[in-house]
Each structure stands twice: as C-alpha cells, then as structure tokens.
Amino acid sequence: MVARPAPAVAAVPVAPPVAPVDPVVALDPQIKRGTLGNGLTYYVMKHQKPEQRAALWLAVNAGSVLEDDDQRGLAHFVEHMAFNGTRRFPKQAIVDYMERAGIRFGADLNAYTAFDQTVYQLTVPTDNRDVLMKGFDILRDWAGDVSFDPVEVDKERGVVLEEWRLGRGPFARIRDRQWPVMFQGSRYAERLPIGLPETIKGAPRDKLVRFYKDWYRPHNMAVIAVGDFDPVEIEQAIAARFGDLAEPAQPRTRAPVPVPHDHELAVTIANDREMPFTQVAVYDKLAHRRNATRGDFRRFVVESLYHHMVNARLGELAQDPAAPITGAGSSTSELTRTCDGFIRSAGAKGGRVGDALAVLFREIARVEQYGFLPAELDRARRELVSQFENDAREWDKAPLRLIADEITRNFFDDEQMAGRRWELEAVREIAPAVTLDELNHLARSWGGARGRVVAIGAPADAVLPGEAEVRAIVAAATTARLEPWKDAGEVAARGLVEHPPAPGKVVATTHDAAADATVWTLGNGVRVVVKPTVFQNDEVMFTGWQLGGTSLVPDRDFVHARFAGEIMNASGAGELDAVALRKALAGKVAGANVLLGELGEQVQGSARPADLETALQLVYLKLTAPRRDERAFAAWKERQRDFLQHKTALPDIAFAEQMLAVTSGNHLRRRPATVEMLDQVDLDRALAIYRDRLSDLGGFTFVFVGNLELAALQPLVETYLGSLPAAGRKAHWKDVGIRYPVGRITKTVVAGAEAKSHVELSMGAPMRWSLDGERDAEILSMVLQIRLREVLREDMGGVYGVRINAFVTREPVQRRSLVISFGCDPANVASLQAAALAEIRAIAKAGIGADYLTKVTEQLRREREVNLKSNGWWRSRLRSAYYFHEDFARATDLDAMLKRVTSANVKASAARFLDEHNLVIGVLRPAAEAAKDAATPPAAAASPAPAPPKSPSRQAPAQPSPSAPPAP
C-alpha cells in the first residue's frame, strides 16, 4: 500500500510541536499491488507453498448490506448464479472444467457472501498453463459476464432455499430476536446474507441483474493471485483480461452503513426449546478502528495483551466447580465494517444467568480497581511474542488461503499487510514497552455503558431474569468493591519434569527406504518412527499407540473407562494442576493428550522444534504420573452435566444418537452419554483403569514427522520414551461384539420446530478387507459425491449438499459400509431418497461415464501432489502402515490406485456396497409435519410426495459472514 502523504505544515516559530504523523504501513514487498486504468485493483504474490498451486480470488466490495428492500438475499443469489453460467462457461461448465482438471468443488472452488463483501475463491494447478489461464478467464467472467440465464435462475432457487433451510434452528431464531436490538435500526439487522425465503422464491431475474450491474464494477473489485508462478506473467494476464471492464455511466455510491453505538444499555433476552445451553454476552459497541498504521498495530498489541490476561483469569475461574460459568472469553473485534465491539461472553452453568453475567462485569471491574499483576503481564508477553515468532517462521510456508484472505482485508479495510517478519519485529519492540498502567484502564476506551448490549440466549426451561433485573445485576457488578486477584505465581523455570528419568537406549536402528524414515527400537520395547521433513519450518507432529484400550475393560467398568482420558487431561499432569500447567507452558508451542480408545491407548501431540522436549515431558507425565484432582474432576463433571442436560434438544443430536443406537444394535458401548451415566463415574475407578492400561507401555509405537534432527531427537526419545515402564505384558484388543443390524430397518425420529428433515441411508455387511477393496471404496465415494450432487442438487434442486462415505474396516471386524446423508424439505424426503438409491442402482448396472473417471483420476493425482508435502498426511500414513504392519510403498502406491479407476470397478463396487437387504433408513421429521401426518386420514397417507422443484446448483456451502457478531 502506498503511504498517504501528510498535509504540508507552514513553519511558524511560535507554533507548538506538531504531533508525529502515523503513516500507513508499507505493503509487504513480496506483494505487488496495482490498479488498472479502469480502477480495478490487483494483488500478485509469488508463494511456493504448496508447490505448483495458485489461489486466484475475486474480491467484490459488495455484500448483503447494499441490497435494496426488494433484493433481500439477492447478493448471495448472485454469487450462486456465477457458478451457473457465464459468457465463456455456459450453465455448469465452470465446475465441470475445473473438476476435470483435478479441482474439488467446495474445497478448491467456492465463494462466500457476507454483509459487506463477496469473495470468489479458486485454487488451480500452475504446472498446466492452460488451466492456470482458464482460471483467470473464470474470474473475468465472474467480474463482468455472469449470464443470469432465466432457466438457470429458476433452477437455482431451490438450492438457495435449501441453504436457507439448513441454517434454521435455535441459534438462528435467537439471532433473529437479538440482532434488531444489537444493531438498533441499522440495515445490518435486516440484511442477513442468506436473505428472505419469499424473496428467493419470487424475485425476478432483473432484480438479480440490477444488483450485479450496480455493484460488480472495477472500482469495487480486486483480483488476487498468490502462488507458484511467474509474477510478471500473471500481472500481464490480469491486465489483458480485466482492462476492458468499464464503470457504469452513473455508478451508485456506496455510503457507510452506520451502527448506532451511542445509546442507553439495551437488553435482549430470548429462549428456545431447542437451545442446548445458556449463553450470556456483553457487547460494548464503538466506532470501527482501522488497522493500517504502526500506531494501529500498537493498539492491536496492547489490546491482545489485555485479552490474554483477562481470558487467563476467566479460564482459571471456570476451573472452580462452584463457578457459574462453563467457560468465558473476552475480545475486541469487528462487528461490521463500521462498528467494533468489546465483547465478553460466557456459558452460564445450570442456567445461572445472573451469576454468569456478574462474572463478566466483575472481572473487568477488578482490573479497573486493582490492575493486573507483573507475573500476568510477563506470561502474556511471552505468549504473544511466541505466537508471532511461530507465524513469522512459517510465513513462507503459510497456506495460500490464509494469505489470500489477509489480502482481501487489505483491500476491503486497508488492514496493514507488512508481513509477518515486520509484525514480529514490531511486537518485540512494542510488547516490552507496554506498562501495567496503560493496560489497567484500557477497557474505558471501548465504549463503556453507552452503546452496550446485553444478550442472553437459553433453553426454554431456563429461569431467566427480566430486563430490570439484568440492569440491576450490571449496576451492582460494576460498582462493587472487590478483592484483588490472587495469582498462584510462576512455576519454577526447570521444565515440567524437575528430575528427568534415567534414560533408556536405542538398541536397534533400521531405515524404512520406502518412507525414507528412521526406525528406533528402545530397550523397553518402545518403537519410534522418525520422518524428518522441511514441509513446515516450525512444526513437529507426533502420534503414539498400543493395542488394548477400553475393550479390555469389563462392561461394568465401561462408564468409568469411557471418560478416564478426558478426566486425566482436564486434571493437569504430575505435580501441576491444569492452571499451573497452563502457566508453565506460557510462551511455548507444545501440547499432548492421552486417550483411552476402544482398541488401544493413544497419544497425540505437536510442538515447534524448540519446544519438543517440553512436549515429550508432557507425554511422559501424562503416561506415568496422572493426577488425582478432585477439584478438577468436579469442575469437569459440572461442565459435562451442563452440556448433557439439554443436548438432545437439538434435533440433529437427537437424530444422530438414535441412528447410532440402531446401527450398533443399541450396544452398551455405543450408547450416548447421559446425566445418569455421568453421575455413575467414580474418580478413583477411572484413575485406576487409566493407570492399569498405561502400567506397561512397552507395546507403544510413536511416529514423529516434521522439522527435526535425528541427533537432537534421539536423546529426548531415550530420556522420555525409553524410560517408560515395560513389563512384557502382551496386550491385544478384544472384540466386544458390536455388530451392524441385519435386514431393512426404517427409523423415524420426530424432533424440531423448523420445516427441516434429515435423511441418512446406511448400508453395511461383513466383507473381507483388502487393499484394493479399500481403494475401490474411496473411488466409489468420489464418484457418488459428484454424481449424487448432480442428481439431488442440480437436477432436482432438493438439497444444498450431500455427504457420501464408503469404507471398509478391518478391525475389530471386517465389514463394508456406505452412508449417504442430506438435509431437505420434509415434503421431498421420499423422492430424494428414491433418487439416491436409483442412481446407485444405475451405476451398479451400467457403470459410470469416462468424464467421471477423468475427474476422479485427476483429483486423486492432484490431491497426492499436495499430500506428499504435508506433515499431517505423512503422520497418518506412517501410523496406518506401522499399525497394520503394511508395506508402506504398496499401501501408498498411487499408480495402483489410479489403475482401479475404471467403469468396471466402479460398477462392481456400487453393486457390492449397495445392499438394500441390510439398509437402515433414518429420517428426521419436524414435529409439525409428524402431527399433520397423524391427523391425515389413512387413504391420503398413500399419496405420493410432491415433486421437488427443479433447481440444480453448483454452489458450495457459503461461509458465515465474517462481519457478524459471535452467536450469542
């Protein structure tokens, strides 16, 4: 960004000193920002992570807040239409072309509409110049040549309506009541991006075109290109394609949309019978502050330190079993383009709304009265600097999406983008200079009581205070005299383990040539697989396992075993409780958890290389020194109770739990957690089971992947893993008898106030596992994902999205499964279900066309290119290979996989997985629809379901508005 010049000041000897100018921070020199003659902005940045990929985005400075009264929802509808025909790409040719190039719809080809902006997102390979340039052609057509074919417009209505339907539920209903209070008459209260269903159903084509022509114009748009390419060539490609776009003769003016923030305390209280918890939030509104200058960035650093400390206090309070909160947080962030907010929110435990609200005000008042403590500020500084150090080290390996998204903020809001290294240097300079005096009264600058909104959302049976009582609570909490905060202080800087254990030794070293990994065997039997990589600069990921798990625990003890890992992870480690452990880890990037799985004990963790020893100390303590902490157990139990009491009020959870009961034969070990189960959990029994399962760790295998050196890692492994106890116990998991039901079963769950259904078709039966069978299942999933999207969404317009999962398991029993699920209008359940099964039958009979095979082949190939440079993929594949004793080269052979992509194999797989004799049909039906059916005479019940509207779509799920306030 070009710095804005300061106005000239005449030299007058008697004038007071002029305040230093705070110039806009210069744009990262790696980014080329330019403007075409027509006013269109562009950004070009060479970035080689991942290799041979580029993010091509079109940012449009127009969203739902600009809609006229007769256009509510049409900004989003316009975005949908961009995928349904342009000048060079008629109908669904954009998605079709990109899928054939190996690009996945949704993951690599997407868009979102928010209050203030619309952003189109495309990720393309750069090793194929034709595809790369075609990507710019697509962006160009989106910018000025969307067709709005009348037939396609009418077909797309159903898809947009299904997206609207998908978003309905208790949170939406409470939001509908709270936002008018929050936004106080602003257009933001009336311009939710998804819009109004009546507008979506009936708006004629010309209203869509009007929005497009009014707001999609060069001065409102930016082309963003970030990736592995020649920047000069890309800049030329942009100029050649976008230079002909023209501004309208009389462009509409975009005026800022204000949000009133100078008003008396406003209170909004809403409850809903499907709300699963009680939430309280406080919004102190203030005018939007930009983040463009060094002074702005300093403000951001100061506010970040403040919130680090407040959130640490709130987190510590939540550890108290008697606390009225399940968790809480504090932040200052953008609510809309014109309004920021100082936001505090909390989960109110047991519906204790007044007490939870008092906590949020009291802790800010405590800071005002007594300030923060030096130890708190020191921890906050370390944590903040550590975060920026990690970001700076990873900047050249940062995901394309992260960089492109940051560039959109530079375009829309002038947010500084000087680069992570500039930010790190600035933080290192600013953070040490921030004083406690500056922080202690910072909240006074965030609006205060003027412009404050208190929002409460709760289940229907919650006892809620009235508005007058809320005002009294606020007044009392903000004026009460409080005690100073008591900080437990720092853990001595000796590491988590004061006296490291006597190290073991590596007794054997081998090399896995196929994976290019080193394998160490330690004297206690623990095996360690190490794969050094340079995929990320500051990341090490690890996982560990041994066989056994809760399957070896008798049924009478399962209620204790299923929660044992959670309880221990919530209790800290060694001598440190959860709060002390958090303080000990301040400024470090290291974490690890231990879980008791059904078939084995598991460790998951990660760290930056400099903190890997800390992560391994954490593993050592959690495996060998679990804490018995009654206070932590009681706090965990109360948090769980608060969730479990109302969880099945959510129709989706009620449906999922009943489907799990059916597909598992209602097995004891698949029953959902309940309050009654929670009350049975005994801390000592859970701890005893945890200790027993981890008393012999000689069967563990660990996999480490990331930026590490063998010479540095080996002594750490020998110390913290080589010293783990091993007694030669040869454990193996036990088959506890969970089986998929036999036969055809229909399960209808009646729940929900919205006219919204969910369908799940689940098929499964025994099948011998094979590597080719596993490959065929993945290929079938990909084919069905494309084909059923085309049929259910594009041809029938009956769904917003469809999920497909075909897989083969090999333990504890070998079986195949195919699960298809989607949400829809209750009136369309039967027709969509029939269409899905009919399409699979057709594939099982005739196979699939060559075009689909090309798409699957290219997507598998392109996906592997990215995965080969991913630490997460290597960790997962190495774990699988060593867990199942597979040959790594054979298990990951892409050529062998691609040879399976044939019509004959897809046909055979469809026939194999389509098992209508062992089919569970699950349907979630809203209560109102079920009541109608109950009142309908039997003769009418046999009537066929109404035909679904004809509305295909290519649009992937829209993202929620980034400008929207957090859900209350």
What's the structural blueprint in terms of helices and strands?
Elements: E1 31-35, E2 41-46, E3 53-60, H1 74-81, H2 93-100, E4 109-113, E5 118-125, H3 129-144, H4 150-166, H5 170-183, H6 197-202, H7 205-215, E6 221-227, H8 231-242, E7 266-272, E8 279-287, H9 294-318, E9 325-336, E10 339-348, H10 353-370, H11 374-393, H12 400-413, H13 420-430, H14 436-440, E11 452-459, H15 467-479, E12 506-512, E13 517-522, E14 527-532, E15 540-547, H16 558-569, H17 578-584, E16 590-596, E17 600-607, H18 612-624, H19 630-646, H20 651-663, H21 675-680, H22 683-693, E18 701-706, H23 710-720, E19 745-750, E20 757-766, H24 771-795, E21 802-809, E22 815-824, H25 829-846, H26 850-867, H27 871-883, H28 888-891, H29 894-899, H30 903-913, E23 919-925, H31 927-935, H32 938-941
Helix pairs in contact: 1-4, 1-7, 3-8, 9-11, 9-13, 10-15, 11-13, 16-22, 18-23, 24-25, 24-30, 25-30
Describe the structure.
- The protein has 968 residues and is α+β, with helices and mostly antiparallel strands.
- It folds into 4 domains: 31-242, 2-Layer Sandwich (Cytochrome Bc1 Complex, Chain A, domain 1); 266-479, Metalloenzyme, LuxS/M16 peptidase-like (Cytochrome Bc1 Complex, Chain A, domain 1, 2-Layer Sandwich); 506-720, Metalloenzyme, LuxS/M16 peptidase-like (Cytochrome Bc1 Complex, Chain A, domain 1), CATH 3.30.830.10; 745-935, Cytochrome Bc1 Complex, Chain A, domain 1 (2-Layer Sandwich).
- Helices cover 41% and strands 18% of the residues.
- The chain contains 32 helices and 23 strands.
- A 7-stranded mixed beta sheet has the order 12-13-14-18-15-17-16, sandwiched between helices. Strands 1-2-6-3-5-4 form a 6-stranded mixed beta sheet, sandwiched between helices. The chain has a 5-stranded mixed beta sheet with strand order 7-11-8-10-9, with helices on both faces.
- A hairpin with a 5-residue loop joins strand 21 and strand 22.
- Helix 9 (294-318) crosses helix 13, helix 11 (374-393) runs antiparallel to helix 13 and helix 16 (558-569) crosses helix 22.
- The chain is globular.
- The two termini are 36 Å apart.
- Residues 1-18 and 938-968 have low confidence and may be disordered.
